[in-house]
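(Protein data)
===
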Amino acid sequence: MQADRFDRATPPVAPTSPGLSVDEQGRGTFAVAAPRARAVDLCIRQGAAERRQRLRHFDGGLRWDHVTGMVPGTEYGLRVDGPWDPARGLFSSPHKLLLDPWARGISHSSPLLSSFFPFEVDSMLDRVGEQHELSRTDSADSAVWSVVVSDAFDWQDDLRPLVDWDATVLYELHVKGFTRLQEDLPHEQRGTYAGLGHPTVTGYLRSLGVTTVELLPIHAAMDEPHLTRLGLTNYWGYSTLSYFAPDPSLATTAAQQAGAQAVLDEVKTMVRNLHAEGLEVVLDVVYNHTAEGGADGPSLSLRGLDNLEYYWTDGGTFLDVTGTGGTLDPRSVHVMDLILSSLRYWVTEVHVDGFRFDLAATLGRDDRGFRPDHPLLRAIATDPVLRTVKLIAEPWDVGTGGWQTGSFPVPFAEWNDAFRDDVRSFWLADRGHRARTGETGVGGVRDLATRLAGSSDLFSAQDPPELPEGRSLRSPWASINYVTAHDGFTLRDLTVYETRRNEANGEDNRDGTSNNRSYHHGHEGEVDPAQEGAAEIEAARRRSARSLLATLLLASGTPMLTAGDEFGRTQRGNNNAYCQDNEISWIDWRLDARATALRETVVELLRLRGEHPQLRSPHFLRPADPAALGAGQIAWFGADGEEMDHRSWMDSSRHLLTMLRPAVHGREGAEHLLVILSSEEGPTTVRLPRAPWPQGTARVLLDTAAERPRNRSLTPIVDGSLEVAGVSVVVLGLPARGPQEPAQTLS
């Protein structure tokens, strides 16, 4: 039975982009990009029946037609008649009901089933036969259906927080894992979008001092075959099924039962509630591959529509620079259109404040490799909607030339893996090496200083040579500084384990990185409190964690905290917990006194960062001039109070560094900051810089040797020196004098 048509005398107007465009009565057009298809049917679900409408028109690679009755709640899918030749990368099969790539809602979350594969598979989802025998099993009864939703929502005058980049503090979290064990939430909201938007959670985030939550993927996803075989799931969600529809599994049970509209409205309510607390929402998005994987994957949407149009292949062979078996083709105009439209939708209709692009180097690839001026990257950077939100690149993939940190165009910021590695080395890996070998000349302070100063070596490397000296196209905020993220050890585990413990992942502990740059402080794993020396080991671990956090939050650039690190969350040594939807990944909110003390240190560090604008310089720092100190400057000193020279920088036996960040003059109560970082194991006498550098009575603002931050106090510096405990960061405030005021002397 065919749907009612518009008046045949009315000339059809071809849509310029795929998707469903209808009025309140469900009348309009539907289009999908499938250039190689012989025919495409729009399939409307009516109870147990399926009504099919052939898309009669073909323009610019789009199959389209007028439609009626496509009102919110309507479930639909697509069937494609086209070439079947897997050896050439052609997987069309009318037996598979496909998801509309532009669908704003989906019918339900589903495990990966054998009926989703275009060829015959066995009960373990392994391919049967060598010839890719076509599966004639119809998937309609088990398929995930597209669902029409309404964009109508009561935003209640919602306003984006518009946090300036130099004030931004990112907080990476998983929607489910962050609240699943939060007992202060109503039981039905734990682990859901609603839970994340609950006042208990938004209040916690505000009290911590972060400004922007970065959510692991919430796009609808589906598990990979190897996880299904192992009885595991892709907990992190980096296996996208739909780039428009939110994942129903992260919604409350009531919303899932009510349908796609309720799920979408729950997401919007979460965003609205976070905005009401001044918190931005950044989504982690995966536009480099999909849940369809490589040649042996299921046919869920894009593969069945036109595999060669959407995926990067060479003679039918899948190109894989993502480590998943397949790669979306960023050279395709239809892939570009899909990505750009998805991004705009989440900004305009869901009000999100930015995106973190997983394996973003893939989005800048063409036949010559990675290009910073790739048309897709240029389109994102210049789009009038997208250029108003935060854009963050994970600047690598697993292909040739995949490491591109510092190479993305303005206005992208980028995850800075060099910051992670160099900071971990200074506080952990180098100390571990010294402890094992007795060598003292390990590491030094040169790389640490580069990261503290904003990593201009990376983020100004692409500047044109014609720029005036001291100018750069980019700013320190482009460096997303982090010491941990969702992948890898947690902060606690960095101080407890030197080898991964990933046995639960079912890959014989082969997965996950071995380059952890961690230090177990003399004992691998958790220590028995009754064991001799246990208290000392635990105290040393906590001090290392505090010093790592201080380095992260006092450095130039945009800091990113990983949820739970502020109170010592552990994953029991698992550094690749992507498939652990359980207590390994979920945050345990039962905090003891030591966990609370660590959180207090983070709050104090973020307060310091907010109170002292010189820590948030919008420009790369220049060498300080003692005769004209001002914002945007920096100076370095050794333990003897002397300025660092070339020989000092090259001395690998130095493990203590003092950083001067001059005050911003004209602010009431402005202070110069002296930050002393020592990875020495024992105490060191540190001489403060002599005149003409700032002098006066110093305030100890923070000392990570202490278990919890103390009240700030005036501390006279006797003879201009103080003793700094080993493995600690000390922050001193010195009074800033006016340009005509004579320097004070130390007493």
About this structure: The radius of gyration is 28 Å. The CA atoms of residues 259 and 724 lie 60 Å apart.
